[in-house]
Amino acid sequence: MSHNLTDLIGNTPLVLSSHLNPNKNVKLFFKLEGQNPGGSVKDRAALFMIRNGLERGTISRESKLIEATSGNTGIALAMIAGIYGLQIELVMPENATKERVQTMRAYGAKVTLTSSDTGIEGARDYAEAKAKEPGYFMLNQFANDDNWRAHYNTTGPEIWEGTQGKVTHFVSSMGTTGTIMGTSTYLKEKNPAIQIVGVQPTENSSIPGIRRWPEAYLPKIYDPRKVDRILDVSESDARKMANVLAAKEGIFAGMSSGGATEAALRLAKELDHGVIVSIICDRGDRYLSSDLFQ
Q1: Per the residue annotation, which of 173, 205, 256, 278 is the catalytic one?
Q2: Catalytic annotation present for 42
Q3: Least confident of 16-20, 92-96, 187-191
Q4: What's the CA gap between 294 and 290, in Å, rounded?
Q5: What distance in Å separates the CA atoms of residue 91 and residue 258, rounded to the nearest whole number?
Q6: Residue 26 DSSP class
Q7: How far apart are CA 67 and CA 60, in angstroms?
Q8: I need a surface site. Which of 123, 209, 210, 292 has the fewest CB within 10 A?
Q9: Neighbouring-strand partners of residue 8
Q10: Contact at 8 Å (CB) between 205 and 174?
């Protein structure tokens, strides 16, 4: 029995692909991170960053937290900050879906919208400048080791145990890269032969939650040695696959999950045999005001 909402973070289901997997000699599993209480994989990192920060004393009940986000991390941080009684300001581009903004505010967060022209980079610049003011503390998911450690301690072990150690390939979209860094570190310790596959957008594609970072904004927690291969996915393919995923597998998720699924299916076609686990990072209901499912 769970006595605290945070006890429900993690231990998300692994679901076998029933219809989309093109290779009968390969098992393709989807890890349903939308089943977390905040609706995304980011619940894991948010809990670790806030809880561990409080335990170390780097933040206190008086701290005014600030963080730039494209959406899912902000929702998770708003939820966790509320549970711990902390103030938080979340900064995101003004073209974020209204569901995301409204959800953050419902959890009690202050939401600041920056120009869509400068994207998440502009939101990060704003948050970094504000963090220099007295009383503010930026969690900085892009450089915070608790981001990837959350996945080293939870996501990686869950995948290893859920596949009885038979996983051969792990596929994840890359945004802050916390998910892929932490999971890779754990799985490689268990079996160095496991292949870690990252997913990023093609040039000029815009996929919420996945980025091709300019060098100056590359997450500090990212270590390219922990990723064996990177697959590029176009915005149109990610959009199409998000719709197919819902219609064929009954998995309602966002565009970044569509991108990861597209990459996982390409990978499955190449293999003679194997066990692939692909991250489904959130739920599709936070995209209903966009044109993703139209």
Answers
A1: 256
A2: yes
A3: 92-96
A4: 8
A5: 25
A6: E
A7: 16
A8: 292
A9: none
A10: no
**Residue 168 φ/ψ region, left for φ over 0, alpha for ψ in the -120 to 50 degree band, beta for the rest:** alpha
Pick the CATH number of 5-35+154-287 from 3.40.50.1100, 3.40.1410.10, 3.40.50.2300, 3.40.190.10: 3.40.50.1100
Q: Which of 17, 27, 31, 42 is catalytic?
A: 42
Would you say residue 1 has pLDDT above 70?
A: no
Q: Assess whether 206 carries a catalytic annotation.
A: no
Give ∠ CA 116-143-106 in degrees, rounded to 5: 55
- Residue owning tokens 């948050």: 127
% of the chain residues with pLDDT over 90: 88
Helix (DSSP H) and strand (DSSP E) numbers for the chain: 9, 10
CB atoms within 10 A of CB 271: 16
Q: How far is CA 57 from the centre of its chain?
A: 26
Looking at CATH, the fold of the domain delimited by 42-138 is given as Rossmann fold (3.40.50)
**β-strands 110-114, 87-93: how paired?**
parallel
Side-by-side strand order, sheet with 274-280? 14-16, 26-32, 274-280, 169-173, 195-201, 229-233
CB 210 within 8 A of CB 173: yes
Stretch(es) of the chain classified as CATH 3.40.50.1100: 5-35+154-287, 42-138
Distance of CA 150 to the CA centre of its chain: 12
Which phi and psi angles does 22 have, rounded to 5°?
-85, 0
pLDDT of residue 209: 82
Asked whether the beta carbons of 273 and 24 are under 8 A apart, the reply is no
The model's pTM is 0.94
Q: Could you tell me if 35 and 253 are in contact, meaning their C-beta atoms sit under 8 angstroms apart?
A: no
Q: Which residues are annotated as a binding site for pyridoxal 5'-phosphate?
A: 72, 175-179, 256
Q: Please, what sign has the CA dihedral across residues 160, 164, 166, 170?
A: negative
Residues facing 169 on adjacent strands: 195, 276
Q: Does residue 205 sit in helix, strand or coil?
A: coil
